[in-house]
Design a protein that fits this description.
Blueprint (H helix, E strand, L loop, with lengths): L10 H10 L50 E4 L1 H6 L43 E5 L2 E2 L24 E7 L4 H4 L6 E7 L5 E10 L3 E13 L2 E12 L2 E2 L4 H6 L12 E2 L6 E8 L2 E9 L9 E4 L2 E5 L5 E3 L1 E14 L4 E17 L14 E3 L8 E3 L5 E3 L1 H7 L8 E4 L14 E20 L2 E22 L1 H9 L8 H4 L16 H4 L3 E27 L2 E19 L2 H5 L11 E20 L2 E11 L6 E12 L4 E12 L3 H5 L1 E9 L4 E10 L7 E13 L4 E13 L2 E3 L3 H9 L8 E3 L5 E10 L3 E12 L8 E16 L27 E11 L2 E10 L2 E3 L4 E3 L2 E12 L7 E9 L26 E9 L1
């Protein structure tokens, strides 16, 4: 029996949202409302408005279809006001978006992004291009779910983005558990459009775009292209991270400090039979001089703030072409072809070497030319140093054990080599429409999307070869390699500095590859039934669908064998397919002139890989008056385990380990299971729409999501480590090396009980007619989360409360319980000005129980239309600033120092854009 949770609504938040929803981004208005885009200058090419016969949230084709679905629309005005140069930039315009993939750091998701409606995960939001599947990224998120990389498509090809916020599995299939994002492209563009954009913040970015459209006798073709280049930034380039990491001066406790140092810890190698054990330990005496931090007499830590880039370098090419042709008056065909390539360059400095040789480290023989350690008692050591050895030729070095990294801070930043990841995305969609009559249409389509990646990662160290380099005196593991590089060793010929050629004797490049292939074929019959009700003709849609997802992942052979520096085994996943077939139907019942009811039913069968399901949905809209409508919907959803959730995943994380007084990089194994059951959900939406004659349009919707049998990882790696230390999980869930240092953490995908989310969406637009020559538009949108609970995770109150939480200890996204976007656009003649404010309420970091402060940022934009300046049909110049006041994101006391699911680390972005239409 499911728990019943008491729902409470913050009255202050509700009032504030309704009162202040009068401002920025034309962020979300229900589909079907009058177009709210700003007036265009007379010299801009006008795109012909065509009759919309299919709306997001329904498969019914009808000239008079009255949608009952809660759809938020990101239109051209919003795209302009958010200064979007990628789809990722549109996320901030949607308050319903929470916990999305945005600024991914140090993981396989760098360069990718995706919407996450309601914080329910990127894999629970289905992304479509013109109503058809958009393809899937070749990597999975932390929950093992596949998702669409929304950055694969050029922004200049987008007409609008329609977001269905109430779940749509009955219409589109099992991935639409939380909702649907439908990207509608500019099919009707004619002419030639050139765009350029330059912006600067902590990084610099440049973008050039092209759009071409041509209409001929029975068809049209449109082509779009974008090229974008972005520089990168290290963590120390970001003021807030640099300030938070200032504790590095005091050793352990710094934000980016690792107990596995370079220089590292030096221990006496005490002979024990045929091997050695650890004697007393000293920090490398040249710790500070060589770039380390002296945490204690026995520990030299590694300040790895510049080991990786917080913002990677990017080179992105995006193209999209569309073709529509009417073969006859009743038969038409279409094709869409897109390709994108994104090259991501991250830096990788001092990587770990977890695969050790002796007592959790590496033996440095007494004969090593830079071993200046002598015995101090039976098991102790003392550092004599070069001067004492020179003064006393009788001194004898003793063998020691080095515990640390081959290279550290001296190899970070500008000296770090690049780790290069290349994503290639290609998609083909083609199909036909055949009109049997004016009221009956048969549609068929086929979509093929293949997405692949290749990652080349240098600095994978071979443990045996590293030990050999030390044994031969080729590699100097001590701090003298940095602090005194010209020092000549005890052998009279070796020089202390290490060289790249010497590094190359044990350093390799890891090459990983993977791909996904998504295919979908649909056949839909839609139109009028021939029956009429009081409100008009009954319409319907009946269809079948066959779709599949293929996934493969091929780690480098060193990863597969375990002979890599991280001492991890990641098996390859051979090409595996998950196939689904579905049958579905939908009917629209105009019971009265003012009452429309829609019902949908879908059957899906995953075969032995997830079972089958029947999901219904019913929705209704009642026009109380000419300006007030009520709407509501209820439906169920279903999602089978993904291929990754069954096979398992391997990743890396940094965790704090109090027994060793430091933070350490560990390998995280998320074990899969073939016994996972499918997760399901039910969705309820109730709301009203206000559309007045005085220019005021408003919608308010109350929503609930009730999830069952959620498929999630057991917990964050830090959570696993803490639970093992507390005795609440078995010790086998972590692995330590011979020196007791953490190396591996094991978690697993499980069905993790139920969760329930609820809240309110508010959308408002007001266009008063105050002046004859000036157009003013106020826009606002807000999302208030009233409930987010779990039966399986402790949450903030120990009883499952996840509302207003960062959700670090579980697999949900960050869920601030109040967001508000508001702004105003003023237009007069060739001038357009927009001022936008974005407010995110405070919430709690459940990792530390510390509050995450609220944030208010302001964006500003000015556009000047210059008719006839360069010839053609018009030129527009835009200057603006994102985060005009350069407000820092709220600080976290733990890594990464800010919440990259919610806030933007780039600070103020100043940009200049130019558009010219021929």
């Amino acid at each position: 029996m499911k728990k019943s949770y008491r729902r409470t609504i913050s009255v202050s938040h509700l009032c504030l949202a309704i009162a202040l929803c009068a401002s920025v981004v034309p962020v979300a208005h229900a589909q079907g409302a009058a177009d709210g885009s700003t007036n265009k200058p007379s010299n801009e090419v006008q795109e012909r408005q065509v009759e919309v016969i299919v709306v997001t949230g329904s498969l019914i084709r009808s000239k008079d279809f009255n949608s009952t679905a809660p759809v938020q629309t990101v239109d051209k005005a919003l795209i302009a006001n958010t200064a979007a140069v990628s789809v990722q930039d549109l996320f901030k315009g949607l308050t319903a978006n929470a916990g999305s993939q945005q600024a991914n750091e140090q993981n396989a998701l760098q360069g990718l992004s995706q919407f996450s409606l309601r914080g329910l995960g990127v894999g629970s939001t289905l992304t479509l291009i013109n109503g058809r599947r958009a393809g899937l990224a070749p990597v999975t998120d932390g929950t093992g779910q596949l998702f669409t990389d929304s950055n694969a498509f050029p922004v200049n090809a987008i007409d609008r983005v329609e977001v269905l916020t109430d779940g749509a599995s009955a219409t589109y299939g099992s991935e639409a558990v939380a909702g649907v994002v439908n990207i509608i492209t500019r099919k009707n563009f004619e002419g030639l459009e050139l765009t350029a954009d330059a912006r600067t913040s902590v990084v610099d970015a440049y973008q050039a775009g092209l759009a071409f459209g041509h209409k001929f006798d029975r068809g049209r073709v449109t082509i779009f292209g974008n090229y974008r280049q972005q520089s990168g930034a290290f963590r120390s380039d970001i003021d807030i991270i640099k300030r938070l990491d200032s504790a590095n001066a005091a050793g352990i406790g710094a934000l980016y400090s690792s107990g596995t140092g370079a220089p590292g810890r030096i221990s006496r190698a005490v002979a024990s039979g045929t091997t050695f054990t650890l004697g007393s330990t000293l920090a490398d005496p040249d710790c500070v001089a060589a770039g380390g931090v002296l945490a204690s007499a026995t520990s030299c830590t590694y300040p790895f703030i510049d080991q990786r880039r917080v913002i990677p370098e990017e080179n992105r090419l995006q193209t999209l072409a569309q073709f529509d042709y009417e073969i006859t008056d009743r038969m038409s065909v279409f094709a869409e072809l897109s390709y994108s390539r994104n090259e991501i360059r991250d830096a990788i400095g001092g990587t770990v070497l977890n695969r050790t040789q002796v007592a959790g480290g590496f033996l440095v023989p007494a004969s090593h030319p830079f071993n200046y350690f002598v015995a101090n008692g039976a098991t102790g050591i003392r550092y004599a140093g070069p001067a004492e050895f020179a003064a006393n030729p009788a001194l004898q070095a003793v063998p020691v054990i080095f515990r640390g990294r081959p290279i550290g801070a001296a190899g970070d930043g500008s000296k770090a080599p690049d780790m290069v990841t290349t994503f290639n995305n290609q998609r083909l969609a083609t199909g036909f429409d055949y009109e049997f009559s004016d009221t009956l249409t048969l549609s068929g389509s086929y979509t093929y999307a293949e997405n692949s990646y290749r990652r080349s990662q240098p600095h994978d160290f071979d443990s045996a070869l590293f030990q050999q380099a030390i044994n031969n005196g080729v590699w100097n593991p001590f701090g003298t390699s940095i602090s005194n590089p010209t020092l000549v060793g005890r052998d009279g010929r070796s020089v202390a500095a290490n060289t790249n050629s010497e590094l190359g004797t044990f350093s390799f490049t890891i090459n990983d590859t993977g791909r996904t292939v998504q295919q979908a074929a649909d056949l839909i019959l839609s139109g009028e039934t021939g029956f009429k009700l009081a409100g008009g003709a009954m319409t319907f849609a009946l269809g079948v669908q066959r779709r599949s997802v293929g996934f493969e992942n091929t780690p480098d052979g060193r990863r597969q064998s375990g002979a890599n520096g991280r001492d991890e085994i990641e098996p390859a996943i051979p090409y595996t397919k998950q196939e689904v077939w579905a049958a579905f139907g939908e009917i629209a019942l105009p019971l009265m002139d003012r009452l429309n009811v829609s019902a949908a039913l879908r059957y899906e069968d995953y075969g032995s890989n997830g079972g089958s399901t029947v999901d219904p949905k019913i929705s209704a809209k009642f026009d109380v008056t000419d300006f007030l409508s009520l709407r509501g919907s209820y439906g169920t959803s279903f999602q089978a385990p993904s291929i990754r959730q069954v096979a398992g995943t391997v990743g890396n994380a940094s965790v704090n380990d109090p027994p060793n007084a430091g933070s350490f990089n560990v390998t995280v194994f998320s074990q899969g299971s073939s016994s996972l059951e499918s997760q399901s959900a039910s969705n309820l939406n109730l709301g009203f729409i206000l559309n007045t004659q005085i220019g005021l349009k408003m919608s308010v919707d109350y929503f609930t999501y009730d999830y069952s049998n959620l498929i999630l990882p057991e917990g964050d790696p830090q959570f696993i480590v803490d639970e093992v230390r507390a005795g609440r999980l078995p010790a086998s869930r972590v692995v330590r090396d011979g020196a007791g240092q953490l190396r591996q953490v094991f978690t697993q995908f499980q069905n993790r009980g139920d969760s329930e989310a609820a809240g309110i969406d508010i959308n408002l637009r007001y266009s008063p007619k105050w002046f004859d020559s000036i157009d003013i538009t106020f826009d606002g949108t807000s999302t208030i989360i009233t409930e987010f609970r779990s039966t399986d995770f402790a949450g903030l109150d120990g009883k499952g409360d996840l509302k207003g939480s960062r959700n670090f200890a579980n697999a949900f996204g960050s869920v601030p319980d109040f967001k508000l976007n508001a702004g105003v656009t003023i237009e007069r003649g060739s001038h357009s000005v927009n001022l936008s404010g974005r407010y995110i309420d405070s919430y709690t970091d459940d990792q530390t129980s510390a509050p995450i402060k609220s944030q208010l940022t302001v964006d500003a934009r000015y556009t000047l239309s210059l008719e006839g300046l360069l010839g053609g049909d018009g030129t527009s110049l835009t200057v603006g600033a994102v985060n005009l006041l350069d407000v820092d994101p709220p600080a976290l006391t733990g890594r990464p120092g800010y919440d990259n699911e919610v806030h933007d680390i780039r600070g103020r972005q100043i940009y200049v854009s130019l558009k010219h239409i021929f």
